[in-house]
Amino acid sequence: MKGYAGKYLMVDLTRGKTSVGKIEEQMALNYIGGYGFGARTLYDMLPNPAQVDPLSPENVLIWWTGPLAGTISTAGNKYAVFAKSPLTGIFGFGISSGLFASEFKSAGWDGVVFTGRSEKPVYLMIDDDNVELRNASSIWGRTTWETEEMIKEELGDESFTVASIGPAGERMVRLANITNERNRQVGRCGLGAVMGSKNLKAVAVRGTRDVEVADPQGLVRFIAELNERCQGPATEKYRVYGTPANILVHNKLGCLPSYNFQKGTFEYAEEVSGEMMLKTHVKKIIACAGCPIACDHVNQAREDYAGTVSSVDYESLALLGPNCGIRSLDAITKAVEICDTLGVDTISAGNVVGWAMECFEKGILTKEDTDGVELRFGSNEALLEALRRMCLKEGRLGKLLSEGVRRASQIVGKGSERFAVHCKGLEWAAYELRSLQTSTLGFAVSNRGADYLRSGSYQVDVKGKVDRLRLDKSRGKIVYDGENQYAVIDSLIICKFTRGIFQSMDELAKLYTLVTGLSMTGEQIVRAGERIHNVARCFNVKCGVTRKDDYPPPRAFEDPLPDDVVKGAVIKREEYEEALDSYYECRGWSRDGIPLKRKLLELGLSREAEEVGVEA
Amino acid sequence: MESRLRKIIVCDPDRCNGCRICEYVCSFASEGVLNIKKSRIRVVRIEPFLNLAVTCRKCEDPLCVKACPRDALTQKPNGVIVVDENKCNGCGWCVETCPFGVVRMHLDKRKVVVCDYCEKHGYPMCVEYCPKDALKYVTLDQAARELSKKAVQILVQELASR
Question: Which CATH class is domain A221-427?
Answer without folding.
Answer: mainly alpha
